[in-house]
């Protein structure tokens, strides 16, 4: 029962993390222009993995998609690939996790379902690591430019999408770890059941041997004077 509850919690955590990671990919604010040292702000610059935009003081936004994938910076291409991989891995992890849970009727025996659940946990952990690496790589580029005194172009700060991606990656890793522990718990349960059955069989065999041994105690013959 405890294992089933743990698997349900792990499934909810991983699905929530996967939804957050998936929503991070099209989110606009991966980085936002800083207002540090600015007295009057007339425009706000922001960008994500697909476009760069500017919003003026009236709230009107003008966006420009990145014209060429090959002309992009290497870190943006890497972040795109990692985030897409995280979303795809999360989908397959959700499918395997649903099959490997004890509360479902598919997947075979408990040992087989435990292995499938462990595989789902590993996939979710890998998905979380991909998302964590992508957000950290993007954030590292922002912070390195922000604290570089020789960088004179527009400086940016961390956007909301990065924090959503980090949160989703953490949930995927935590839920995936709980899924991986399910195979260890099932193996321990199987060992306890085997030990109990083995002990019961030994006791049964001993009782059979004891019953099969004939009683060689010589019969006692009492004389009639013994009752007097």
UniProtKB/TrEMBL annotation:
Gene3D superfamilies: 1.20.140.150. Residues 217-228 have a biased composition (Basic and acidic residues). Residues 1-23 form the signal peptide. Residues 207-228 are annotated as: Disordered. GO terms for molecular function: structural molecule activity. It comes from the Eukaryota. The chain crosses the membrane at residues 82-104, 116-139, 159-184. It is found in: Cell junction, Tight junction; Cell membrane. One of its GO terms (cellular component) is bicellular tight junction. Keywords: Cell junction, Cell membrane, Membrane, Signal, Tight junction, Transmembrane, Transmembrane helix. It is a multi-pass membrane protein. InterPro entries: Claudin, Claudin10, Claudin_CS, PMP22/EMP/MP20/Claudin. Claudins function as major constituents of the tight junction complexes that regulate the permeability of epithelia. This is Claudin. It comes from Smithornis capensis.
